[in-house]
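User: I'm preparing a small set of examples for a lab meeting where we compare how different chains pack in three dimensions. I only have the primary sequence for this one, and I'd like the structure in token form so I can line it up with the others. Please keep the answer compact; I'll paste it straight into my notes.
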Amino acid sequence: MTSFIDKAEMARMTARMLLEIKAVNFEVENPYKLASGLVSPSYIDCRELISYPAIRTTLIDFMVATVQREAGFEAFDSVAGGETGGIPYGAWMADRMGLPMQYVRKKPKGYGKGSQVEGVLHEGQRVLLAEDMTTDGGSKIKFVEAIRAAGGVCEHTSLVFFYDIFPNTIENLAEHNIALHYLATWHDVLAEAKAGNYFNSKTLDEVEEFFADPLGWSLKHGGIGEVSK
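Assistant: Understood. Below is the structure token output for the 229-residue chain.
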């Protein structure tokens, strides 16, 4: 069963899938301005994965295997997806694991029952939060807090992609009692991009410089030089 292959091989294959469908974008001359104000030569669009059935099926196998290996086979009672990118992953993982599903809004609905967590959530239910990606983990904390406020027990989140270039992300999540389970990072993508000659060496060198010091690179190229708290 390929879903229980070595974690490093999962990371390499995930990175290759992202590169193969051109979900990874490296642009040095005209870098991307992110919502945070950060200027970056790299951009990833994990939402494109949902349009590739063979890839998404493999990634769900990897995600389920990863949380089972790292958290346990009977660790969860349901799976929740976060609005909006995490909702399909929540649905696919819940189906694969044979569990109920919920989804979490970014903020409470402003009418009706005013719910932020949709679906049936029982008090004390152990919920796995499924998402497509995270940068610094901030939105994951908000989703987890919403699940907890609704009566669920949520201590784990599963991702396809984790940036892993901003300091203290894992520690900040741990302070909120959240464990992160992910398949690949920017470092995995860069390694596979080099191995497969997906970009020229000048571009890869510049991207590697950004990954080593994202805030410094951003400041040098007209973006913010610190992350707001």
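A couple of notes for your slides: Residues 2-220 form a domain with the Rossmann fold fold (CATH 3.40.50.2020). The helical segments are 7-20, 53-71, 87-97, 138-149, 169-175, 186-196, 201-212, 214-220.

User: Perfect, thanks.
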